[in-house]
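Consider the following assembly input.
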Amino acid sequence: MRSRRSLLTIAGLGGLLLGGALIMSACGGSGASGSAGPAKKGGTYRVAETDFGFSDNFDPTGEYTAESWAMYRGLLVRTLLGYRLTAGVAGNTLVPDLATRVPTSPDGGKTWTFSLKTGVRFAPPVNRAITSHDIVTAFERIDTPAIAAQYGFYYAPIAGWDAYAQGKSSTISGITTPDDQTISFHLTTATPDFPYRLTLPATGPIPHEVAKCFPGAGTYGRDLVSSGPYMVAGSQSVKITSCAAITPMSGFDPASKLILVRNPNYAPSTDDPTIRRALPDNFSFTIDTNQTDIFNRINAGLLDDSPNTPPASIVASMATSATTKQRIRVVPNDRTRYLSMNLTTAPFDDIHVRKAVNLIMDKAGLQQAQGGPLFGAIATHIVPDTMFNNDSSITSYNPYATPNSAGNLAAAQAEMRLSKYDTAGDGKCDAAACKNVFAIAGNTNQGFNMVPVIENSLAKIGITLNFRELPPGSAYATINTASRNVPFTSITGWTKDYPDPSTFMVLFQSATIIPVGNVNYSLVGLTPAIASQIGVPYPKGATIPSIDAQFGICAQTLAPSTRQACWIGLDKNLMENIVPWVPYLSDNAVHVISGAVTAWDFDQASGGASYARVAVNPAKQSH
Amino acid sequence: MDQVATLGVTRPRARSPRASFWAKFTAQPATVIALVFLAVLILAAIAAPLIASLVGHGPNDLYRTQMLDGFGLPRGPNGSFWFGADSAGRDVFIRVIYGARVSLVVGVVATGIAVVIGVTLGLIAGYRGGIVDTLLSRFADVMLAMPLLLFAIGISTACSTTSAGCLRGTLTPGLNLVIVIIAVFTWPAMFRIVRATTLSLRETDFVEASRAIGQTEFSIMRSEVLPNLISPIVVYSALLVPQSILFEAYLTFLGLGIPDSTPSWGGMLDQASQLFSVAWWLMVFPGLFLLATVLAFNLIGDGLRDALDPKTPRRTTRKRAA
């Protein structure tokens, strides 16, 4: 998932100790802000952001942003399985939500059967019990091409998936509902991580009587029927007697606000109250296009939280006072930032060049450009350590270690000498292909700060870049279009979809190379046939390496420890034998909260605030 | 012996046109100050590498440990970094000096191209009249009616997403593209001035006389009309230069102009906008230089207009009369 995160900040190197202390406090679970008092029920939790940035108009079938997932999971959409909605490794642990338990597969990952809890009801205007058929409805929406579910590929192993999508069948044959409280999934291939895929918000129940009224992409978001502890304000006023009678819920205007109130049909007895504490009476999500204003208002007590990253100036000023320092929250975010090298374009079509780039790169400089240690630790491989449960065989793995992570000229030049582009043997690329290499960067403050660090680093081994700093939207549109064949990219980062390393490794599958919306920027696994389809010249005489076979083995490995070892092996293979990236930062999420917040936690699985576990003291709020 | 001299009367010394022009031009202290400022700026821009080597800081050298604080925020002016550092830890003073190169090159070259196009087409339209005038004038009107900034953003964006740029590599991202965009959108103003003046000049007796002795149209335009256009062209060119400099700053401010590795005042202001509350120097120094340069060109334009206008009285004469 390409998480939406504001990129308007810089923060600093010297925040290491501060960052460590803050990470510790945030990882400790729900952290009260001190003087605001104990966490109690009541009040309105007020959140503002510069832009909702929805990828599918808040329609859960297609919505694919971290903040939306945090809202769904904590407040509006329950799924068969979920997470503890807390920070750290615990937050990546599967727990039952609508289901009574986390099942095991009787046949090595091909069949998964769930029993639903009783007494779970939809919010108004539907007001009835949730059944297994409502989950089927959600899957039918995912499998309807016109609705364009953005991560529907995760469910392709379900039997009959393609037939339904192609209109050859009126049902998805691989999903069966023996009764209202039971649902089974029959897969064509063993998929041990399938339970994780049932935590994604698109799989939450959707009432069929409403779903039929929203047959298009992104249409259901304004009338989302809640299954969680809150609902959109005005839900009870919507008439569902016919599709024509349905009007948008009054509490949601995608251009300005999303107001949530308590769902009167929510029964805490059907949920784990230690997970979804549901303390505030209301939630208010509003848009304020001025990011600095948002954080000034949080400091003034006029707002309580924001998913936007706070500017360094705000964090710096808050860190100077013991009182305000308590209101900064820093949590590792299962996200890797990386520089991407295209294996089909010179000079990055030579693995020695790619290794030399890894060895020369001033990662400490890149870390500082991103805001310093407070905003993330230096990454040394592809998948964040937390995704491997901090396995000791990977936490210390650093195949391109350099002094102070600032680059090693001698090692880089030694590697460059092995390259076909260093004909003089002086450790510098002397071919024309190394001059003026086209590259894309973001035109955010961090993006600008990174460019000179990268340019200075690569110049030492004879590579000069022709950087284009574009707005993030344009930059992604450019690099996502495979035919552009961009050689080098610095704007890239990746966040998990669910806590399994496969959600990182999919980036290197040949199957993910597509003409538009491509995220396999390095084109790992490109074949002449795929190259022809996407309009990219296949390099003459070259063989682009592939991980497809190894991916298939890991993906079908059931035993957790063996599976983890397999993914670790693939990570190392990528870093040493393919080298598509320069991973440089394992991101932290940085939040600033108001002095009125009495409880706060981070939803590790979604990568945003854990709204189910926050609380506010109305008496401390300013108005 | 001259009778006048014999009578002890001093003959008023006849000034050459050049001397007269210079006297009028330098009569205004503001014009002189502007001229001196620009001269110094041009010298500094030319000598930027020398200044950088004397200071010991290159325009893209990073001084992260020295000039960024614990939160990655840049440090302000000090004895080594007179204008402070930017958010990447680079010397703002050196980048401002290098930025002058971009501003001056863009200002002069883009204006030069716009002047060549505007004068040529304006001369032809004004002199030939008829359908040629109508077509060229409407074309200029269309150009003036275009939403300039939106169009420029579109061109810049379209040409910045591939290494080949646009039009089979004719327009590649960067300085050249910015110059072309500015020139394309500024020539119509020059066209209108030249056309209007030519329309009146072509009816004058000396042009009529040239026609009568059989001079070709091209010859008349070049030898009779063009020399009489010099004054408005020079004056308006001087006013176009600051416009071009500002336009480059706009484009770069929007992230569509000069790449970050080439220091430019617009680019520096763009980055400063996000940190102004904690790093005033990022905006103040490039902003002041931009302001001063634009002001200087405008003052020189005013001075040229006064100096080339025969109706402008010479200040020295007025003083004597007083």
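Chain A touches chain B at residues 8, 10-15, 18, 292, 311-313, 315-316, 319, 365, 368-369, 371-372, 374, 438, 440, 443, 445, 448-449, 451-453, 455-456, 466-471, 474, 477-478, 484, 487 (CB under 8 Å). Ask yourself how this observation constrains the way the partners meet.
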